[in-house]
Specification:
Nitrile Hydratase, Chain A; two-stranded parallel sheet; alpha/beta; 4 strands; 11 helices; 2 domains
Length: 227
């Protein structure tokens, strides 16, 4: 499991193998302009290989792609809003994330991946990255944004998180500790943002509208009630 980083140092704790096993995959280009093209080519090659080997049919593959494309950050937003209004659910979410999500929302998220929920507080702010590729909780947030996969974000957020957050428009007080958590092939993170002030009177549905994708990655704060 990767360990959180504070904003003063970057210690992977996993010897840079990152838990990934891609022995036959070509090295990803460092040029950010070509990264998306490389990823599309790699995904196409994997799909064709799975079909050729009879592991999955074309129809099954298309259904899975359609399902993945249907996932949006609103799933995560509803989870966060529920945690804000329901202390029991929040405790369950932090202790056993996938079980709590499936039981409470009637979902059937089955995955061998571990999910860790990182709670933001008035004194701690979490931000998530995948330094060597683009591991991301797609089952809760949908397709990752292009910037999350970029070399610039992956390389800089671990060494200068406050500067990167400032470029996203997120300015934190000096006494707030910034923790950067590095995803792996087996581990995903979901940031549980701190509930904005002045929103205690809002319904769960209204609160969900304040929770953005970026706030669940940690590069942004939730919207304010007046936004």
């Amino acid at each position: 499991m990767s360990h959180p980083h504070n904003d003063n140092h970057h210690d992977h704790g996993h010897d840079h193998d990152h838990g990934h096993d891609h022995p036959h995959a070509p090295a990803a280009p460092d040029d950010e302009d070509h990264y998306d093209r490389y990823e599309v080519l790699l995904q196409t090659a994997v799909r064709e290989l799975l079909h050729e080997k009879g592991i999955i049919t074309a129809d099954e593959l298309h259904r899975q792609i359609d399902y993945q494309d249907s996932l949006t950050p609103m799933i995560g937003s509803k989870i966060v809003a529920k945690a804000w209004v329901d202390p029991v659910f929040k405790a369950q979410l932090i202790a056993q994330p996938l079980e709590a999500i499936n039981d409470t929302f009637g979902l059937d998220i089955t995955t061998p991946l571990d999910l860790v929920v990182l709670e933001n507080t008035p004194t701690v702010h979490n931000v998530v990255v995948c330094t060597l590729c683009s591991c991301y909780p797609r089952m809760l947030l949908g397709i990752p944004p292009a910037w999350y996969k970029s070399l610039d974000y992956r390389s800089r957020v671990v060494s200068e998180p406050r500067q990167v957050l400032a470029e996203f428009g997120t300015h934190l007080p000096d006494d707030v500790e910034v923790r950067v958590s590095d995803s792996t092939a087996d581990l995903r993170f979901l940031v549980l943002p701190y509930q904005p002030a002045g929103t205690a009177h809002l319904s769960e549905e209204a609160l969900a509208l304040l929770v953005t994708r970026d706030s669940m990655i940690g590069t942004a704060l939730p919207l304010s009630a007046s936004t």
